[in-house]
Amino acid sequence: MAPEDKAEELTALVQEIRDRVRARYPDSNARPGLILPDLMPLVHARDAAEAKVAAIGTVNPRRGGPFNAVAQTIKKLVARALDWHVREQVEFNRQVLACVESTLEALHETRRALMRMDVDPAEIRDLRSHWAHWRAEWEHKLFVNETQFLRSVADLQGAFQHRSSLMETNFREIARSQHADFQLSLEHSASELQKKFWDEAAKARREYERVIHEELRIVRQRAGQSASAPANPGSPEAHPAPPFDYARFAERFRGPEEYVRKNIQFYLPRFEDRAPVLDIGCGRGEFLEMMRDAGIEARGIDLSEESVAVCRSKKLSVEKADLFAYLAELPDRSLGGIFCSQVIEHLEPFSLPEMIRLAASKLRRDGLLAMETPNPECLAIFASHFYLDPTHTRPVPPALAAFYMEEFGLGQIEVRRLSPAVESMPSLASLPQEFREAFFGGLDYAIFGIKL
For the segment 228-268, what is each residue's pLDDT rounded down to a tens digit? Predict the structure, then answer.
């Protein structure tokens, strides 16, 4: 081969090596505007470190001769003896160099990647110039979004709190309503239980009173006691008709019908569920009218033809009859209630027990006898009221009436004072209250007894 051809081949080989080196280690100045750091000092430092690592364990050369051979032998022996001591250091040095080699390779790859980037530096400068504007807009949008988000969260929290308040209010209302219903149910149940208890207690009381009455009757019979009243008292003679207009007399001194009808309203609950009811001495029929309006079957008797005519004009069931004869003809236990107002004070004293005996015999079990009469415990009736009626015989004290009722099988005796004297005699208000209540209480009284 000619020298010229060898020179060209060598030149081409050098150019190829140069191209490969440039491709592996690109020149930072090849692309204007892109300045890359020089890695050659790091490469030289790496080569020097590798040379030092390669020299570890070698012995320094000397000139030949016996002394040199002995020295070399000693150094080799020492190196072998210390091999265990420096082995880790040698391994560490090799690993450090491997790390440096890897770092250099990574830096070269980075340089090559940057060189391959097809980015115009003008675009990079434009990107940098607009970055501040874009960043401001981004921060503004971020702030707006964050504000909207926080506002939405606040609205949701407010709605949640409102709903929670509504739920709590509804819960409190429901709890309050349930508590009120529970209280009403409890009170209703308690009242029903109390009513049942008192009904049972009243039944037990009536049973005990009935037993006591029967036992007393047997004791009296065994003791040979006779009745206090005559065996055959007969029907007492009726008082002759007064020589004046008795209806006008009653209107003036007892009061108009509206007044009487108002004052007897408290009898109505006692006669409910006690039909049929008999009114003895019905007069103008105020009690019978009240019974009719309440839907309770009732009839009346009276000795006055005028009173009977007045009651029949009101479509009331009334007949003229003597109370003793009428009661004697009635079947036993045929009545549920008997009402007798302002009558017993007209009877002779010996006739009253017979009247109560007949009335008690005609009542069925749990039947009611109610009598109203002037109250002799009130001294005011003797000053004006009692002796106004010339047909009155004598007043009946409440204790005496209660005794007669107990004697003939009536129990649960109850006395109620009516018409306080101070209402018709205001001057009594000047008296001490205790004295006035003891001697000037109710002008009338009502006494009640239940058939045992």
Answer: 444 444 444 444 545 545 555 555 556 567 878 888 899 99
pTM of structure: 0.50
Hey, which residues does 370 pair with through a beta bridge? 339, 448
3-state secondary structure string, 326-385?
A: HHHHCCCCCEEEEEEECCHHHCCCCHHHHHHHHHHHHEEEEEEEEEEEECCCCCHHHHHH
Give residues with Cβ within 8 angstroms of 247, minimum separation 6: 284, 306, 307, 310
How many Cβ atoms sit within 10 Å of the Cβ of residue 205?
Answer: 15
HSE at residue 204, side-chain half, CA atoms within 13 A, is 6
Residue 170 half-sphere exposure, CB side, CA atoms within 13 Å?
Answer: 6
Q: What are residue 374's phi and psi, to 5 degrees?
A: -60, 145
Alpha helices in 224-301 (DSSP H): 246-253, 257-263, 268-271, 286-293
Cα distance between residue 370 and residue 364, in whole Å: 14
CA dist 444 and 284 (Å) reads 19
b/e map of 108-121 (b: 16 or more CB within 10 Å)?
eeebeeebeeeeee
CA triple 30-36-42, angle to 5 deg: 120
What strand order describes the sheet that includes 277-280?
318-320, 298-302, 277-280, 335-341, 363-374, 442-451, 410-420
How does pLDDT run across 314-353, given as a tens digit for each residue? Answer: 899 999 999 999 999 999 999 999 999 888 988 888 899 9
Residue 207 CA to residue 211 CA, distance in Å, equals: 6
State how far the Cα of 275 lies from the Cα of 367, in Å rounded to an integer: 9
Q: Which residues contact 285 (CB under 8 A, 6 or more apart)?
A: 279, 300, 307, 310, 311, 314, 316, 318
Interstrand relation of 298-302 and 335-341 (parallel, antiparallel or unpaired): unpaired
Helices vs strands, H then E, count in the chain: 16, 7
Q: Contact 448/407 with Cβ under 8 angstroms?
A: no
DSSP calls for 385-407: IGGGSTT------HHHHHHHHHH
